[in-house]
Amino acid sequence: MAFDLRTLLVPLLRWRATSAEGLENIPKTGAAILVANHVGLQDPQALFGVVLAHHQRMPYFITKWKIFANPIVRYIANTIPLYPDRKQTLVEATSILQRDNLVCLYPEGGVNTQPTIGKVKTGAARLALATRLPVIPIGFRRLTPVPQTSADHRQDMLFGRVQLRVGPPVDLSAWYGRTVDRPLLDKVVAQIMTRVAELAGKTYTG
């Protein structure tokens, strides 16, 4: 990877993850879809720092925050906006994957500090079926207290810490070539999120 000023952020971001297991499961080259649970606002920062430090790669993140749609912020944080038309988001993510990048999704759609993972979004499943690229499950576990106030949330964004575990690719080949309908998406989502939940020490309930 050619020098990029964002590599200077590694010391500031890497410490957000006190430990990171299974990083060998994230490919050092080529495209892959990273799918993770979401325990705090620090999750993308921690993952970005860890992958950049260990693999010299900068994952892209699909995010719904409007601030991350700003062109400057998008460059710094490697974000893909969650457009009102979700198909546009998937088209942009597919284009980025076709350039041999990593794209990360948080199917829960928001922070979840509960011991279970319930109903989630289908974007990761749709992207996986459309591209047939490796799907890498990632489990996050919080180490800092769950924020209770707005001030706590701001502090958590800056100083929250996590552990993360990365599993081997989820084999979805049995579902390739089939009609993509809701029953199929539910099965693919369940297969992916069950593995994510296991890595996070949670239970997927769908």
SSE diagram, text form:
Layout: H1 10-14, E1 17-21, E2 32-36, H2 43-55, E3 60-63, H3 71-77, E4 79-81, H4 86-97, E5 102-105, E6 116-117, H5 123-131, E7 135-142, H6 150-159, E8 162-166, H7 182-200, E9 203-204
Parallel strand pairs: 1-8, 2-5, 2-7, 3-4, 3-5, 6-9
Antiparallel strand pairs: 7-8
Summarize the structure.
This protein has 7 helices and 9 strands.
Radius of gyration: 16 Å
* Total DSSP E strands: 9
Give the spatial strand order of the biggest sheet.
1-8-7-2-5-3-4
How much is the average pLDDT?
86
In terms of DSSP E residues, the strand content is 15-25%
Quaternary state of the chains: single chain
Q: Provide the helix percentage.
A: 25-40%
Q: What characteristic shape results from the CA principal axes?
A: globular
Termini separation: 39 Å
Poorly predicted sequence stretches spanning 5 or more consecutive residues:
none
Query: Structural class per helix/strand content?
Result: alpha/beta
SSE string: HEEHEHEHEEHEHEHE
Largest sheet data? 7 strands, mixed
The total of helices stands at 7
